[in-house]
Amino acid sequence: MNILQLHIDPVYPPTNGGETRVWKTAEHLSSFGEVWLACPWQHDLELPGGVRAVPLDTVLLRRKALRIYAWNALQAFDGNHPLNRLLTRAVLRDLHRQVPKVDVVVCETLQMWGAAQQFAERFDAKLLLTEHNADFDNLRQNLAGTPVPAPIADRAVRNLREYERQAVSRADAVVFQSESDRELFAGSWMCARVIPNGCDVDEIRSAGDPKQLREDLGIPSDTPVCLYVGSFDYGPNRDAAHFIARELAPAFPEVTFLLVGRDPPQLDRENVLSPGFVDDLPSALALSDIALCPLSTGSGTKLKMMDYLAAGLPIVTTTVGAAGISIEDGESALVRDDADGMREAIATLLSSEATRDRLSSNAAALGTQYDWEQLLSGYDSLLPSDDD
């Protein structure tokens, strides 16, 4: 079986949650045949296992300003706007040169939908759409409170919603990351499955070398650590970092707030440490006392939350951070949606070992449900069988 998978970012080695999800999916699908993973790769890249890199050589993907910001801005004119049509043609040109006949096309992002649909039609291949988020709802949240005039913002959201609804309706199967995202498309025809994000539970629990990482980061052995994991080139993660530095860190000068992930913002707080991407995530989790997820916007499930759970960390999160996960406030995490509530929750965890232990134990038990191998088996029945 030949499987084509399409994404707008290089995903190996993965450095954020979305890239990890796509790469783990590619690894799983490779057990069914050869996976052709099309992204704006470097041309000389070799991938492990049964995954082949298909370089997409277009400036429309290489520049984030075009593939994300301009693509979304032009939704104010039309869902299938001129930039989207140009991107579809450029991607198809590269696919036709490099990819043989395929049996399955897996589209990982709406920017690739036009190319995915046409390539699948060419070979009568099964077409799967992965909804990492409800994109129209993300756009609505991101435009709220901006200077964009309401009529323009509303039109952009409405156009993207219709474009996304058509994609969901026309795909042979759709994979959502949360039940709440699937419900946003109720009424659309679809064969749908909810497969949340996961983690490598055993790897996370290997704990790495937290003592060495603590020394490398210059964190004293007796200093409590609150951890936030995220790629800070993503707006909601960047907003969360500033929220931590502005609203949480000043209230706890005895605590180090550790922000781990690529492209960290420069934050002028003595007790906020942002070293950037850390290769040894298990060590960062193991050296921490509390995990934070103060996201205010977004949809889908947050991969950082799965890592926190698997590590058995006491978690303070917003409702957005807990979306799509079977979290019970006060049992597997403390769910707070404002700065006062988060400060109170952190203070409670710092002062109460019993509360920390209870949340830690319950989080670890819940985390075992989100192992990648178990979750990604949900794709198996969506693939063509010998009888198809």
Automatic annotation (TrEMBL):
GO terms for molecular function: glycosyltransferase activity. It is an enzyme of class 2 (transferase). Its EC number is 2.4.-.-. Coiled coil: none annotated. Keywords: Glycosyltransferase, Transferase. Pfam families: Glyco_trans_1_4 (PF13692), Glyco_transf_4 (PF13439). Residues 16-202 form the Glycosyltransferase subfamily 4-like N-terminal domain. This is Glycosyltransferase family 4 protein. It comes from Halobium salinum.
